């Protein structure tokens, strides 16, 4: 605790973020003065400037090494539940381009064997993902003919 008391008068110089020549020299002078004052008041023995610098870093970091906030178990949970971890769409957000949904363009074929009413009836129970995109609702998954064909056949049986 003595180091903290002694460092109070030097903290503005020691914790300065500038790295120009004048500031670096001022930091060296501050560490030398801090070391001299600490050793004059210390009852446990003489410490070097390097030792006091290391001790001050331990005080700043709490004496621990960096520990990532996410663990392997957290990553497994995120992998199992991806829909719950998708961010909300926000066009104003700076990271919005990273989370855009690609909308598949579709075209209507004139020579289909089923009417649009049959297709809509067959897909009515499986339309599940609609998302608000610039004021209109659009599907997030493309409509595939293979998805609807078995249901249409069941309609006629």
UniProtKB/TrEMBL annotation:
Species assigned in the record: Parnassius apollo (Apollo butterfly)
InterPro entries cross-referenced by the UniProt entry: Myb_DNA-bind_5
Description of how the protein assembles with itself and partners: Self-associates forming complexes of several hundred monomers.
Positions of the Myb/SANT-like DNA-binding domain: 3-52
Protein's recorded name: Regulatory protein zeste
Keywords associated with the record: Transcription, Transcription regulation
Cited function: Involved in transvection phenomena (= synapsis-dependent gene expression), where the synaptic pairing of chromosomes carrying genes with which zeste interacts influences the expression of these genes. Zeste binds to DNA and stimulates transcription from a nearby promoter.
Taxonomic lineage from the root: Eukaryota, Metazoa, Ecdysozoa, Arthropoda, Hexapoda
A Pfam family that the UniProt record links to this protein: Myb_DNA-bind_5
